[in-house]
Each structure stands twice: as structure tokens, then as C-alpha cells.
Amino acid sequence: MIKVLSVFGTRPEAIKMCPLVLELEKHSQIKSLVCLTGQHREMLDQVIDIFGVKPDYDLNIMRPKQTLTTITTSVLEKMEGVLDECKPDLVLVHGDTSTSFVVALAAFYKQIPVGHVEAGLRTYDKYSPFPEEMNRCLTGRIAELHFAPTENNKKNLEMEKITNNIFVTGNTVIDAFKTTVKENYQFHNEELKKINFEGKKCVLVTAHRRENLGVPLENICHAIKKIAQQYIDAIIIYPVHLNPLVRETVFSILDNVDNIKLIDPIDVEDMHNIMSRSFLVMTDSGGLQEEAPSCGVPVLVLRTETERPEAVEAGTVKVVGVKEEDIFYNAQLLFENEDKYNEMTKSTNPYGDGHASERIADKIIGWRKSRERAD
């Protein structure tokens, strides 16, 4: 058996890694183990509970006022003991978090091969998204197996002279919808339970990235307020990140607007099911750019660039920047121009068919067999 240790520490990672963990557990050739770093805590725990994933190790690093430095040093120090005890044949990490890069580095120090799930995304601006762009690039230099969601991601790696063991698999987040989206779903969040969606266009908003703090987030909020005032029959739902800097800005501008519901962060089931009922998603998140198109919902990206250009090329996503007038104009276009709206909803999601986890598991088994032949 090949011993595979999957390591993740944030809510977005967990959403995309839990379907893969469940798939790995189905294979008799694989002994699947899970380690949580706890870079996030409560939101991470919600996700693994929903998927029924049981961790074998938990570093529990989250601390009040943690910084990139404290995350990095804590994960690096604690992973050493886990790797010494576990002795995995392969360590799997995901995407672009500090957990992913530091765990890859810890595995490299032990000369343990690393598999990078969701490899090859790039903006080519090392400070945007920060620190995610460099986390992803550095993880890519360390990894031995690269599970790229799209052909474009594969080409990015090849341009960087990374040419071996690149596998185009689709994105595991699409796999997650098999577990989370349900007919006649009943929301967990008490505020969502109270909302009557009948006959209303629901707009789901998330905005919290570091690079948007300050004036960009203020612009986003003013645009959202203008949309709410212009389209009084719409309902805007904004799960507000717990970062005090985010909450201060958001609540100062958007609180007490009748058709804007500011709620605390919601679990993945609520998020996916509200997304599936939405008319429009407005976000600075990376994951929602992949998730919403699988529900046929257009996405306006509240950033100046995206590391997911496939969705823009496919027509499911549009990057609108962080200026109030640009955000409002593009939202207005979708509210008032049915043809433009339909162009986005009927485009094909470029991120796969919901079988990415199966492909990754098969490639891991094939990689192990090829190593055994070489030995």
C-alpha cells in the first residue's frame, strides 16, 4: 500500500480536499491519513464534519492575532514530528495557502514526495493575491506530482520548466457539490431560514481579501449599496468575514439597508445551497469563481486580476475591478440585459465534471507503480 498523508488547514482547502480524501479511502492500494494544521479552526471543523472526514493528526496552530510568520513557524515545527511518526510515501497539499507551502517545505526537508492539488494557477504578480501567489509558485517548485485543474494551468507549469508528472484532472471543488447541494435543502443559519426568496433575485457577496482592505473594500460596499437601492426587489446576502478590519468597513456602510442581509460566515452546505439559488455572485474569492459556474450562476470578480482566466475565457466570470462605478455598471448590465445574463449562465464551466478526485487517486496509484518498476 502507498501511504498518502493529506494536509490542509483552512476552510477553502478543506472544501476541495475532503472529496479527495473520501475517494482515496475507497482504494485498497492506498492507506489514507489526514493532518489538519488548524490555520483556520471553527470554519475548518464545520467542513470536515459535513464531509465526515476524521483527522489522524491535528496541529491546532491557530492563535489570536496570528501572522504569516507565526503560521509559518508553527506549521514547520509541528509538521516535523508528524512526518517522523507517519512516514508517508506521499504528502498531498492544496492550492495556495501558507499551510500548503510550509507543509511542502517540511516534506522537502524530509525528502518525501509532494503532490500539489490545484497546481499551476498564476497571476504573475507576486503581491496579488498576497501571499497566495508566491505560496503556489513555491509549492510548485517543490512538488513531484502536479494535479492541474485545466490545460491552461498545465501550460503555466510547462512555461516554468516544470514538465514531469503534470496531470489535468479538473477541480475537486466540483466534486464537493455531490455532497453539499440538495433539493429542498433547509439552511442551518438562522438568518437564512428567515429569508423569503420567492420572486426575488438573490445576490451572494463575499469580499475580504487582504489587498482589498481599505479603499477598495469601501468602493465595493458603496457599489453594493447602490445596487440594493436601485433594485429593491433583489436581496443581497453578504456573509461577512470575521476579520475586524473587514467587518468595520462593511457594517459602517451596509448595515441597516433593508434588502442587504449581513450575516456571519456560513458553513459550506449553506454556502453552496445559497449559491445554487442565486441570480448573481459578486466575490473577491478564488473558489467561488469555480463553484458558482457549476450552478449556472454568473460571477463578477471584485479584483483587478484573476488566477483563473479559464472562467473569464469561458464567459462564466467577469473581472470588474474595485471601482464603485465599474462594479455597479456590470451588475446593472446583468439585471437589465437578459441576453448578457444568458451568455454567462449558459457558458460551460471549465473546471470539470465532478470526477477530479477519481482521476487524482488513479494517477497516484499509477505513479507508485511506475516508481516500483523503476526500482
TrEMBL record:
Protein name: UDP-N-acetylglucosamine 2-epimerase (non-hydrolyzing)
Any one Gene Ontology molecular-function term assigned to this protein's record: UDP-N-acetylglucosamine 2-epimerase activity
Highest taxon above the source species: Bacteria
Keywords: Isomerase
UniProt cross-references to InterPro entries, sorted A to Z: UDP_GlcNAc_Epimerase_2_dom (IPR003331), WecB-like (IPR029767)
CDD domains, sorted: GTB_UDP-GlcNAc_2-Epimerase
UniProt family annotation: Belongs to the UDP-N-acetylglucosamine 2-epimerase family.
EC number of the protein: 5.1.3.14
Residues covered by the UDP-N-acetylglucosamine 2-epimerase domain: 23-364
Matching Gene3D superfamilies: Glycogen Phosphorylase B
